[in-house]
Amino acid sequence: MRKQPAERNTHISSFYVMELLRRAKLLEAQGVDVIHMEIGEPDFPTPPTLVDAALKHIQTGEVKYTPAAGLPELRIKIAGFYQQRYGVTIDEHRIFVTPGASGAFLLALGVSLNPNEELLMADPCYPCNSNVATLLGCKTKTIPVAADTDYQLTAKHIKDHWTGATQGVLIASPSNPTGTLISPEELKQAIDTVDKLGGCFYSDEIYHGLVYDNQATTALEFSDEVFVINSFSKYFGMTGWRIGWLIVPEAFIEATEKLAQNIYIATSTASQYAALAAFDENTLTELENRRAEFAARRDFLYDNLLRLGFEIPVKPAGAFYIYVNCKKFTDDSHQFALDFLEAEGVAITPGLDFGSHEAHHSLRFAYTTSIAKMTVAMQRLERFINRESL
Amino acid sequence: MRKQPAERNTHISSFYVMELLRRAKLLEAQGVDVIHMEIGEPDFPTPPTLVDAALKHIQTGEVKYTPAAGLPELRIKIAGFYQQRYGVTIDEHRIFVTPGASGAFLLALGVSLNPNEELLMADPCYPCNSNVATLLGCKTKTIPVAADTDYQLTAKHIKDHWTGATQGVLIASPSNPTGTLISPEELKQAIDTVDKLGGCFYSDEIYHGLVYDNQATTALEFSDEVFVINSFSKYFGMTGWRIGWLIVPEAFIEATEKLAQNIYIATSTASQYAALAAFDENTLTELENRRAEFAARRDFLYDNLLRLGFEIPVKPAGAFYIYVNCKKFTDDSHQFALDFLEAEGVAITPGLDFGSHEAHHSLRFAYTTSIAKMTVAMQRLERFINRESL
Questions:
Q1: B355–chain A Cβ distance below 8 A for any pair
Q2: What pLDDT band is residue A389 in, cutting at 50, 70 and 90?
Q3: Of A2, A12, A61, the CB nearest to B200
Q4: Which residues of A touch B112 (CB under 8 A)?
Q5: How far is B162 from chain A (nearest CA, A)?
Q6: For labelling, which of A57, A172, B7, B341 has a CA lying 20 to 30 Å from the CA of B313?
Q7: CA of B288: how far to CAs of B55, B212, B215, B279, in Å?
Q8: Which residues pair with B204 in a beta bridge?
């Protein structure tokens, strides 16, 4: 029998944070009080309205396959949400309910990007997206981004890096790990540029809703020819339910439906019934309260990290991450994260998990934990850096 | 923007049955009493023990990501099931909980088969598997199989069709659409052959448990170097929960974990908590009762289809399908299925959905509906073929 994994797996990077997580669990098993600031998952439970909607359906026992594209009534509700929140009209047939944003991204690339075609994305960025491209035999080119463009790709980046092999551009706003947004003008220009170049534009909008200073803009405001990836995981608090959605251009509907049938049959039925309650007024009220709490945490963490001497050139406006430059303290942020965990029991994510550009000087702090816990974490961090700088 | 789907999508076949399903729904909306014998989904609800286990977890609201490989306690329970049911010992670290068997198959191929490498499979077979291979840039070669080998690939098939490009063999037992099993001897020889040829062996065991004459054999009885795909959908009645599992050889554990993290993060948490109750004695008792019911249905349908003049060269021993040769009535089974639906309101699946070998002479009947309904369906079928042959 074959004794080793297929070649593509050698190009799929591991997450450095996994090593940290394992160590954190070991420490916890030994009784250490570990504070988790590495986790990209809201600490809030799933809103009760969603839980109730799921329970009501599951109790019937009739948890059967749904259509591959999702429950028709859920697709209609998602379309209604775009109308209400963004004022854009989306034909619900362009909306596919997917097993998380991961499923949406696999579907989007699978339906639109050929092997060896290249996808442009920012560095730093969420690493799984590039690994999914690798799975499909597509190439990715990461473009170093910095504070001057809010860590977002611009039309100029796209034009400068576009080659004969390039066929797609991925923009994530709010961005993981930087929490920064692209401005509506920049987004429009980026879309127009890709449009003229004849490529595919993928807009990762999974942190929409979790925006604290100004509303995020959907790419659909500027074009019906873009792919939009979204999720019920983050704003709607449904991580473990594995449900997201993908919006495709009209011309891709048929192929997307076929591909969905083949690669995942359908999204979890209980999760879809839960999501039917996601846009109810009660749910949205609860989610807006949580958003206010996240905003307060963002401000708390931002102020404290600045106070301690970390550089944050752009105040993050969304998601639940702050990406700091730690070069004042170390040239090896990975080792810093390991040492900090060991010495103080606080887990954070090293920059290497998000690319290579300035990665050794970068750390991601997630404010997916309470201000009370972050207060302790900041005391520990202060002690740690004071000790290190002795 | 790009205006048309990526090239791979032109090689991904649509399901003919979808057209039938759409028409069936339209007829139902008009008040026609349609009997569904096209559906690969048990008509039983999810067993109450599983529903209760899910409810108990969901009620906490703490529906969070699990590890990518699945809940550790579920992996241990699956390992225990192999010990108890098959007498084989599997290290639970080789077991990955997946979003359905679809997720398992994508993971298995992704981790082991390179682009342009070729996978051998039977014709007829379940079509999604070949489409997933296409998604990854792998090739498939289907080998016509017939009654003489119970519609299963044999060691001889494998040797005869192996070329420099071949690197994998997929065997599904019980098979969809034929319901036939491979014998333990043939399975062992097939595995040994692939072993000697240095390829990968994939055993699709998703219909295990739904076997009526003799116990199905797992490929793991003969080798630790095979990939085994299984599912909670069929025997355990959990279709809409989207949960299955994959067992990989030791050398592939690390790459599989990495790939799982990247392509789906984790399987639905509620589904995993439900599955924790799948191996309880109460659940298994209920499932064995259902199996007895399926066995009675199989016998009923088999006898009736033979009586009406359809050829069934091998009595199917498992799954919930009977694959008949209908050449006595038509040379175009697809048209036959469309006409039968139109005239009599019974939906069945045309052979074309499972390959090309004798597909125009083949139809799949699913006994995922009660004997009462099948009694009516058989009356309608009798009337239909008598009218057609006038």
A1: no
A2: low
A3: A2
A4: 2, 5-6
A5: 14
A6: B341
A7: 23, 11, 13, 12
A8: B172, B229
* Helix B281-307, helix B371-388: angle, nearest 10: 20
- Classify B169 as helix, strand or coil: strand
Given CB atoms, is B276 within the 8 Å cutoff of chain A?
Answer: no
pLDDT digit string, tens, across residues A263-311: 999 999 999 999 999 999 999 999 999 999 999 999 999 999 999 999 9
For A252, name the nearest residue in chain B, comparing CA atoms only: B5
Cβ-Cβ contacts under 8 Å, B66 against chain A? 240
Using a CB–CB cutoff of 8 Å, tell me whether A140 touches chain B.
Answer: no
- Residue reference for tokens 């961090």: A381
Mean pLDDT for chain A? 96
pLDDT in tens, B94-141: 999 999 999 999 999 999 999 999 999 999 999 999 999 999 999 999
Of A302, A116, A86, the closest CA to residue A212 belongs to: A302
Per-residue pLDDT band at A215 (split at 50, 70, 90): confident
Closest CA to A68 of A99, A90, A89, A91: A99
pTM of the model: 0.97
Min Cα distance A141 → chain B (Å) is 18
Note which residues in 69-98 of chain B have CB less than 8 A from chain A.
Answer: none
Would you call B113 and A255 a contact, using CB atoms and an 8 Å cutoff?
no
List of chain B residues whose C-beta atoms are within 8 Å of the C-beta of residue A255:
5, 9, 12
Domains of chain A: 7-45+283-388 (3.90.1150.10), 62-281 (3.40.640.10)
Task: Judge whether B107 and B98 are in contact, CB under 8 Å.
Answer: yes
Element (H or E) spanning A375, and its range? Answer: helix A371-388
Contact A135 B263 (CB under 8 A): yes
Say yes or no for a CB contact (<8 Å) between B251 and A54.
Answer: no
3-state secondary structure of B333: helix
Which residue out of A52, A60, A64 would a mutagenesis test of the B interface target, given it has the greatest number of B Cβ atoms within 10 Å?
Answer: A64
What residue type is assigned to position B380 of the chain?
R
pLDDT at residue B214 greater than cutoff 90: no
DSSP string over A284-334? HHHHHHHHHHHHHHHHHHHHHHHHTT-B-SS---BTTEEEEE-TTT-S-HH
Reading the block at residue A199, the tokens are 């490529």
